[in-house]
Amino acid sequence: MQIDISLEQGNVPVTVIKVSGQLDGQTYKDLISSAQNVMAGGAKHILLDLSDLTFISSAGLVSLHVIALLLRGEAAPDLEHGWAALKSIDRSRESGVQKNLKLLNPRPEVTNVLEMVGFSSFFETHTDKQKALESF
Asked: Model's pTM, two decimal places?
C-alpha cells in the first residue's frame, strides 16, 4: 500500500490522504498512523482518496472507523483485540454520517464492501474532488 498526503483548500483546509493498493491486515495500521500524524499536525478534516485502492479487508474497515473516531475526539478501540474493534463499528454507525472524514472515488469492488457492511450510510462519498473539498 502507498499513502500520499497533501493539503488542499475547500471552505476550510482539507488533508487529502490518497491510498493506493490494498488496505488489509498488513497495512491498516499504516493508514491509522498517517491519519494520527496529520491530526497531530492540526488536521481537522480528512478526505480519503480511494480511487487507487484495489482491495479493502475487515482490517481496512477498522482503519476507516478508527480515523473517524479520532476525528470526533473519541478513543480508538484496542486494535490488538480485533473483534472488539469490529463490533464497535456497529455502535458508531448509529451516530450518523461523519462530518470530518469523507471518501473520494472508491472503486466498485471497494464500494461493494462499504455497502455490504453499511458504511455507505456512515461515510459521505464523492466522485468529484472539488465538490468533496467544498463539502467540508
From this structure: 0.87
Residues 83-98 have a mean pLDDT of: 56
Q: How far apart are the C-alpha atoms of 11 and 65, rounded to whole Å?
A: 24
Task: Look at 92 and 8; give whichever has higher pLDDT.
Answer: 8
User: C-alpha distances in angstroms, 116 versus 18, 22, 44, 124, 134?
Assistant: 23, 18, 28, 15, 28
Q: Where are the beta strands (DSSP E) in 45-129?
A: 46-56, 101-104, 125-126
Q: How far is CA 98 from CA 25, 27, 81, in A?
A: 24, 23, 24
Range 2-134 has CATH code 3.20.20.80: no
